[in-house]
Amino acid sequence: MKGFFDMLTMIEVLKAILFGVVEGITEWLPISSTGHMILLDEFVKLNVSKEFLDLFLVVIQLGAILAVVVIYWNKLIPLSTKHGLHISRRKCKMWVKIIVASIPAGVVGILWDDVFTKYFYNYQTVAIMLILVGVVFIIIERSNKNKIAKIDSIDDISYGQAFLIGVFQMIAAIFPGTSRSGSTIVGSLMLGISRTAAAEFTFFLAVPAMFGGSAIKILKYNGGFNSAEVALLAIGMIVAFVLSIIAIKFLMSYIKKHDFKVFGWYRIILGIAVIGYFLAAR
Question: 6: pLDDT confidence band, cut at 50, 70 and 90?
Fold first, then answer.
């Protein structure tokens, strides 16, 4: 135990908690969790290897995805025992749509994840994508003002539309700062899907995306995990889980009365601040 606490100091625990807080809050809001995590790493350095840090920033998302599973358990699980064991065809169709939408990002992640991580996971890309997607959010919301959504339920999303939403998710997989939730929500709004249905489909689409992304990182990880690294992952995931529940409930309540423009402005301001900070630091 003494060796364990020598490796895992209180300051490292606090850093892991901070990363968990940022992940839990930003994963579900369309402001880019990966972008925020990369930026946080510029200021708060975990005392771990570069390889483990790359894994940590992805696998910590499992805590966030478990929050979706807990909150939406009844909508996600196709098996029901309410009136005897049976399988919901509606939920099975929903999962087929989720799988279809997962294909573009899945292919990109498997084939070129290391390449994109090497060339795009930096503050320049994050800042640019924060601003660009923020502008797109504002433009789309202004063009959609007073328009009635054509699709109010995930059940009404076609397989073709699901694939197109997956293409938007693929863009986020390539360029950090885009925001996986932000890009899929933008794509959904462009297709005439309501904000509530767009947000829920984004949450559900995250389940295979995050589990798959975490599995790829773990399988590619060459180093063995020591007890301190396992503890840091566990702390980050637990904190992300708790904060994600709060963030999801907040977002679903917020969009019932408001649009996404505030997130667009936040992204633009943050992106400009990031560029300004790093230019001044040179």
Answer: low
For residue 231, the surrounding DSSP H or E stretch is helix 227-254
Q: What is the DSSP letter of 183?
A: H
Q: Kindly provide the b/e burial profile for residues 46-59, where b requires at least 16 CB atoms within 10 angstroms of the residue's own CB.
A: bebeeebbbbbbbb
What the block records as the tokens of 226 is 């020591």
Pick from 147, 281, 166, 263: which is nearest to 212 by CA?
166
Query: What token pair was written down for 222?
Result: 């060459």
> Contacts for 70-77 with beta carbons within 8 Å, 24 or more apart?
70/245, 71/245, 71/248, 71/249, 72/200, 72/203, 72/204, 75/200, 75/204, 76/204, 76/207
Q: What is the pLDDT of residues 183-238, one digit of tens each?
A: 999 999 999 999 999 999 999 999 988 888 788 778 877 767 778 888 899 999 99
235 exposed, middle or buried (CB, 10 Å; 0-12, 13-18, 19+)? buried
Q: How far apart are CA 134 and CA 261, in angstroms?
A: 8
How long is the chain? 282
Overall number of domains in the chain: 1
Q: How far apart (Å, rounded) are the C-alpha atoms in residues 282 and 253?
A: 42
Whole-number Å distance between alpha carbons of 46 and 269: 27
C-alpha 83, offset from chain centre: 35
Residue 46 makes CB contacts below 8 A (sequence gap 6+) with 12, 15, 16, 19, 53, 56, 232
pLDDT single digits (tens) 69-89: 999 998 998 876 666 678 888
Q: What are the tens digits of pLDDT across the range 224-282?
A: 777 888 889 999 999 999 999 999 999 999 998 888 999 999 999 999 988 998 888 77
Report which of 183, 186, 196 is spatially closest to residue 104, judged by C-alpha positions.
Answer: 183
Range of the domain at 182: 2-281
